[in-house]
Amino acid sequence: MPHRRHWLAGTAFVVMVMSHTAALAQADAGAPIAAPDAAQPAETLVTPDTAQPAEAKTAPAASGDPEIAAKAKSAAEGMSPQVQDVQIVGPWSDGARDGVWRTVMVQSQTDDSAFHFFVQQLEGAGANLSVLSTTEVGEISQIDGTVVGYRADEPSEEQPNGLTLFFDILPSDGEIAETYELHFFPGEPYSFGPATN
């Protein structure tokens, strides 16, 4: 019986909402709007100024530990203005060790249209990450075009500690982006070139 009451209450609510929606649709369609019933109290118009007390209008205080928030702000402020993009692009694992791959795109200080692209291998998790290596993919700064995006492929079961990235590069004299691929394995030379598939 309680289930039936909930069902009936839900059905009544749906019917009420549908009736109200139909009335609004008629009002929007140009049908005459009935005058408010004198027996009913007039609705009070709620504006943003009257909806909340003045104390609630102030910006909320930063949540969490102020010391941790200050360290995070310091890390963000310490980043060079030339850093244009930072992404975590996938995990890696090598036996008992694991971590993530991070990419960093840095604008050249001598040429606004040129960028340096770095792959970083980070070990650990959460707040306990450390940088194991940073490698520049030199070809990115030499391309005659613009990197309009890149994405990581899933790590393979055979090479769980490797990274494969696909780049969409728009040539400076073209209108259609071309796809390039990067294969990166720790301790080995990377390969970068036009996509093979």
Features:
197 residues; alpha+beta; 4-stranded antiparallel sheet; 8 strands; 24% helix; 34% strand; disordered N terminus
Short description:
With 197 residues, the chain is an alpha+beta fold.
Tell me what the structure shows.
This protein has 197 residues and is an alpha+beta fold. The chain is 24% helix and 34% strand. The chain has helices spanning 2-28, 48-51, 66-77, 139-142; strands at 83-94, 97-107, 115-123, 130-136, 145-152, 163-171, 178-184, 191-194. Strand 3 (115-123) and strand 4 (130-136) form a beta hairpin. The chain is globular, with a radius of gyration of 29 Å. The protein starts with a helix and ends with a strand.
What is the CA–CA distance across the termini?
Answer: 62 Å
Radius of gyration: 29 Å
Q: What is the overall silhouette?
A: globular
Tell me the helix content: 10-25%
Describe the largest sheet: 4 strands, antiparallel
Query: Count of DSSP E strands?
Result: 8
Layout of helices and strands:
Blueprint (H helix, E strand, L loop, with lengths): L1 H27 L19 H4 L14 H12 L5 E12 L2 E11 L7 E9 L6 E7 L2 H4 L2 E8 L10 E9 L6 E7 L6 E4 L3
Antiparallel strand pairs: 1-2, 2-3, 3-4, 5-6, 6-7, 7-8
